[in-house]
Amino acid sequence: MESKAPLDVIAASLRRERARAGLSLTEVARRAGVAKSTLSQLESGTGNPSVETLWALCIALEIQFGDLIDPPRPKVVVIRADEGPAIYSETKEYSATLVASCPPNARRDVYRINVTPGPGHISEAHIPGTVEHVLLSTGRASVGPTGEPVELGPGDYVAYPGDLPHIFQALEPNTSAVLISQTS
C-alpha cells in the first residue's frame, strides 16, 4: 500500500502557504486555474494531484515546488543576552533589543526589554489591532495602558491593546522582560 505521508505534507504545505499569502481558497483556485473542490480536497489530504496541478498551485502561491513537497524544518536561532540590534530611549534608561522579527505577511516582533527605575517609557498607540504581550523576567514593573497599568513581578505576564498609549515603568533596578508585539 502506498504511503499517505506525501499527501499529508502537500496538504499542510498548501494550507500554510495559502495562509502566508493571505488568500482565500477561492482566490488560489482561480489563480491556479483549478476547481475550488480540487484545492479543498488537496488541503484536506485527499485527492490525487497531478504534477501540473501542483505546479499551477505553486505559481498561484508564488512558491517553489519544493515548498509543497518538502516540509519546513525547524531552524534554531540563538541570540545571547548581549547580542542583537538594540534601540535606546533618548530620555530614559530604556532599551529594546529586537530578537525576532516576522517574515513577510506575519505580524509579530519579539523584543528583550531592559529598564531602570524612573518615570517610565510611554509609547504612543501603534497601528489598529496591535496587542502587546509582556513576560517579566527580572525586577518589578508597571506595564499596560497608560490609564490602567498592572504591576508585574518575575514570571508574571500581561497582554494589553498596543493600539492605545501604554507604559513600561521599572519599579526596581535590573528590570527586564520579553515583549511581543502582535498585529492582527
TrEMBL record:
Keyword DNA-binding annotated: yes
Keywords, alphabetical: DNA-binding
Keyword field contains DNA damage: no
Domain HTH cro/C1-type: start-end pairs: 14-68
CDD domains (alphabetical): HTH_XRE (cd00093)
Name of one Pfam family that matches: HTH_3
Entry-linked PANTHER family: HTH-TYPE TRANSCRIPTIONAL REGULATOR, METHYLPHOSPHONATE SYNTHASE
Protein known as: XRE family transcriptional regulator
Biological source species: Kribbella sancticallisti
